[in-house]
Write a structure and sequence with these properties.
The complex is a heterodimer of chains A (about 110) and B (about 110). Chain A has no helices and twelve strands. Chain A has about 110 residues and is mainly beta. In chain A, strand 5 and strand 6 form a beta hairpin. Chain B is built from no helices and eleven strands. In chain B, strand 4 and strand 5 form a beta hairpin. In chain B, the strands form two sheets. In chain B, strands 2, 4, 5, 6, 9, 10 and 11 form a seven-stranded mixed beta sheet that branches. Chain B has a four-stranded antiparallel beta sheet with strand order 1-3-8-7, with no helix packed on it. The chains are: A mainly beta (about 110), B mainly beta (about 110). Chains A and B meet through strand 5, strand 6, strand 10 and strand 11 of A and strand 4, strand 5, strand 9 and strand 10 of B.
Chain lengths: ~110, ~110
């Protein structure tokens, strides 16, 4: 079985400070990892993914994430947060031979001006 | 470009009434499709996925069913709604296992 853990329900940062949202996963075989963002009453928007290759992946809106196989982690980062980054963030995993996409419980990010 | 449509956006239904939510994908063929439910603005629960017409995999036994009558159409149904069926229902499609899923805008279902 595959699973995703997002250990923090909420992350609060000041605008201009770095932002990190944590994610760890469990899956059989090689993982395909994804980050999504959700604004109130909207669908999920794709931010970035790790499939293979460089452990540091860059995505939309200045976000990046680092894949760490030994720690089974895929933390989302942004060097300088904006108030507009305030939203609900989801990490997701899919096994290389599996159609199921499993999500974490989500982390609410609040960036204060 | 590909787009995914869900309707209706909001729905209020009495307990015991039937349900039909529709999802369609445009601009691609043979999409893989998901139905998710999100309760209280938090985690997403995978309900069903489909890799082809008539092929439905159920993840959670419950009061819901899914059908895929056409290649780009995915329907979520219930014969009799329960209060616990309330939630935000999301449809998504993806091309293959190493690609991202694209989500519709969701349907907010309130069972009263």
């Amino acid at each position: 079985a595959q699973s995703v853990a997002q250990p923090e329900d909420q992350v609060n940062v000041a605008e201009g400070n770095p932002l990190t949202v944590k994610c760890t996963y469990s899956v059989s075989g090689n993982p395909y990892l994804f980050w999504y963002v959700q604004y109130p009453n909207r669908g999920l928007q794709f931010l970035l993914k790790y499939i293979t290759g460089d452990n540091l992946v860059k995505g939309s809106y200045g976000f990046e994430a680092e894949f760490n196989k030994s720690q089974t982690s895929f933390h989302l980062k942004k060097p300088s947060a904006l108030v507009s980054d305030s939203a609900l963030y989801f990490c997701a995993v899919r096994g290389a031979n599996d159609y199921k996409l499993s999500f974490g419980a989500g982390t609410t990010v609040t960036v204060r001006a | 470009s590909q787009t995914i449509h869900q309707w209706p956006a909001t729905l209020v239904q009495p307990v015991g009434s039937p349900l039909s939510l529709e999802c369609t994908v445009e601009g691609t063929s043979n999409p893989n499709l998901y139905w998710y439910r999100q309760a209280a603005g938090r985690g997403l629960q995978l309900l069903f996925y489909s890799v082809g017409i008539g092929q439905i995999s159920s993840e959670v036994p419950q009061n819901l069913s899914a059908s895929r009558p056409q290649d780009r159409q995915f329907i979520l149904s219930s014969k009799k709604l329960l209060l616990s069926d309330s939630g935000f229902y999301l449809c998504a499609w993806f091309r293959q296992v190493n690609t991202e899923a694209f989500f519709g805008q969701g349907t907010r279902l309130t069972v009263v």
